[in-house]
Amino acid sequence: MASLMHRFSSLTARTQRPIINSLLNFRQVHVLQKKDIRMAGRAKKHGNLAALALGGLAVAGGGVALCETKWGAEYDPDNHGPYFPENYEKIKIIGGNGNKKLAEEVAEALGINLMKSRTAQYADGEVMVQLDENVRGKDIYVVQSCAAPVNVAIMELLLTCSAVARASAKRVTAVIPYFAYKHHRRGAPISTGLKSRFLWSASSDFAKMLEVVGVDRVIAVDLQRPGQGHEACFFSPQIPVETIMTTEMAAKYMAKRMHFPRPVCVVAPNSETIKKARKFELKFRKRVLVPTSLGAFLPKQASSGPVAPTSKAFEFMGDVEGKDVVIVEDLVDTGATCVEMARQLRAAGAADIYVCASHGLFGPGSIERLRESGVKKVVVLNTLPLPEGQDWQGMVEQIPIGKWLAQLIKTEHLRSNDFDDDLEDEDAEDMREL
């Protein structure tokens, strides 16, 4: 083994590069990971001498100028630029106007540039999409959040996916951090004039549109669970739908970044979010030094659907007197629900009130409305851009999810189950800091 490493290190950098390219094509070593010693150990266990040689060179630095940067990008000794294995070069990221900043964050985490494309609107409002790079045989990921104006964002997503599919892309994946028409996910009854009704949901129509334009796979963030109008149920079995569940991520973020001097009560706005609030509370209690509890707004009588907190037919179950409160929501739009909950929680003796939601739509006047209600801070994911024209400074804080989406894209592209160690080791790091 030492002889092999010595002979390899004696070669020039230009001679070493094609050998490294061949070694990287082995299934065990798609890209060099940060844990090079662990990689070499796995290669030795499987009897892969070539992979072991590469792992040993990475550890010993045997004349090969390879160093880890981000998400598997290595250093090329000839051109001093990002270097990727052949199959990894086939990834292309297209950023939609719905959240261009998040798309750039994903591309940066992957160590690549956004694909060149143009999107514009004609005078009558029609959307035009132009691809400025060749996508034939490539693995394309279209990152587009359905931000306001939502219908324009959806049309841009559909036309982009259609253009990519028609241009002979190998696979088209729609990365939709915020899946639109969540307000309609439970379905609305359509009367037939008889004693029967059809159930219809705009979310199902959106899913069918994505299938028709040639989308092969969907990646989203915090889709609802089965029984709550799960958007994934609207897709056919031929379209895999993968969602990142961020409840525990948000709990870790708030416990690490914010100070809670008093006991904390985690509140669910309705019966459908109790499981989500419970998961948040279980993860949160492990990272704070104060007692935690769970509360919820529940209907007084049985109901076939969710009951808004503004209704007189609900009551709060829990104890918030002298405690800080974290309201766990799916999304914040007008803020009316959170404002009403904050009013009643204040009346019950709550101290500081926080809102933690997956998506921040923040309609006109919503942030000011939340500030006046006594909510101290609203924490949301950066699935949607913060609205212009509203004073959100000091009131809204966003959790970045670009690296999580990038890792999921990388894992899916390489057909690997290796999730980055840095993401998994954050639990231990958080505990050490506490």
UniProtKB/TrEMBL annotation:
It catalyses: D-ribose 5-phosphate + ATP = 5-phospho-alpha-D-ribose 1-diphosphate + AMP + H(+). Pathway: Metabolic intermediate biosynthesis; 5-phospho-alpha-D-ribose 1-diphosphate biosynthesis; 5-phospho-alpha-D-ribose 1-diphosphate from D-ribose 5-phosphate (route I): step 1/1. GO terms for cellular component: cytoplasm; ribose phosphate diphosphokinase complex. The keyword ATP-binding applies. Residues 91-190 form the Ribose-phosphate pyrophosphokinase N-terminal domain. It comes from the Eukaryota. InterPro entries: Pribosyltran_N, PRTase-like, PRTase_dom, Rib-P_diPkinase. This is ribose-phosphate diphosphokinase. It comes from Heterosigma akashiwo (Chromophytic alga).
